[in-house]
Amino acid sequence: MSPRSEEFMDGARERLASARDQLVSRHPETALSTAYYAMLYAARAALSEEDRYSRTHRGTWGLFRELFVLDGRLPAGLLEAAQEAQKRREDTDYDAKPISMEEAEATLEVAERLVAAVDALFGR
């Protein structure tokens, strides 16, 4: 992995650890938001490996789909779950919508799977 991609992956792993801590502390909204950002950073790491970048969340997920899902390197279900997490994050961050611990735990599980999939894709 290139140094820049590794920086993104380090950020993804740090956010995963932080999301776990936030769940233990019973802060589901913060845990969900942080887990979502772990996914976003992993997606940006993958794109960086292809020398592709986007300035927006939507653009990142669109490129991720184009480069890694459509060609079958990563499962479509991970992308769909990440996009659903984005919607829930926006609801909690911008509209103060509460979520359950179970929803936050499910989002963290998806984030762990996505980060692991990107790691595996690039031989880590």
Explain what you see:
With 124 residues, the protein is mainly alpha-helical. 79% of the residues lie in helices and 0% in strands. The protein is built from five helices and no strands. The chain has helices spanning 3-24, 28-49, 57-69, 76-95, 101-121. Helix 1 (3-24) runs antiparallel to helix 5 (101-121) and helix 2 runs parallel beside helix 5 (101-121). The radius of gyration is 14 Å and the shape is globular. The N and C termini lie close together (8 Å).
Write the layout of secondary structure elements.
Elements: H1 3-24, H2 28-49, H3 57-69, H4 76-95, H5 101-121
Helix pairs in contact: 1-2, 1-5, 2-3, 2-4, 2-5, 4-5
The backbone outline, from C-alpha atoms, is globular
Mean pLDDT: 95
The radius of gyration over CA amounts to: 14 Å
Count of DSSP E strands?
Answer: 0
Oligomer: single chain
**Between the first and last Cα atoms, what is the distance in angstroms?**
8 Å
Q: Could you name the ranges where pLDDT drops below 50 across 5 or more consecutive residues?
A: none
